[in-house]
Amino acid sequence: MIELIPAIDIINGQCVRLTKGDYDQKTVYRDSPAEVAKEFEEIGFRRLHVVDLDGAKSKHIVNEAVLTAITTETNLVVDFGGGIKTDEDIEKAFAAGAAMVTVGSIAVTQPDLFMGWLEKYGPERIILGADVRHGKICINGWKEDSCEDLLPFLRKYIEAGVCNVLCTEISKDGTLSGPAISLYSEVMEAYPELHLIASGGVSSLDDIKALNAAGIPAVVFGKAIYEGKINLNELWDWQNESYPV
Predict the structure, then answer these.
(1) Which among 86, 120, 169, 222 is placed 20 to 30 Å from 23, CA to CA?
(2) How far is residue 226's CA from residue 204's CA, in Å, rounded to a whole number?
């Protein structure tokens, strides 16, 4: 059964969503991300994906206090990304209560540092971020394109021990236009043992059902919740009917 992971993106301490990673296309949904996290927990979610968009833009963690509030006020298993560029940053994230961190840019620009973190903290705590635009990995808050192609990029880190990958199709992110199922299926065909977390474009329960049918292990989604496109009661009913406890 596909793992359901809601997302909270943070700018200026507020819960927001961007469209295609464009900071000029920002919608503010709530002033308190911690309150949103508590509501997710009350609904029944157990995981949470938190992105420090200020951090991604500034190249260092900015919203550490928000992360701390979320992890102290809930029991959610939180993975955190955005602005993790140094040993100090990753230590801050774990000290603030993150169970896992998502790291993308450093895996491109400083692979030795990434490998050191993988060895130090273990593959269960490090999620490789693979943000894709036109087949290439993007870095630094999606503001720069790298020369790395997706599948070879994944292969070298999977061979090094990575088992969790968060893959975002940037052209889909925040658009409610449907997920890039063909892209995720291609990744799973190449690396069937990978715990792939799909991200971008989810607009409905049908999208989640389609990802599940395609064998995608997990999905991150946010805007569809905030915009009321997914009825959470129907979501849980479907999950319980498909895999009753």
Answers:
(1) 86
(2) 12
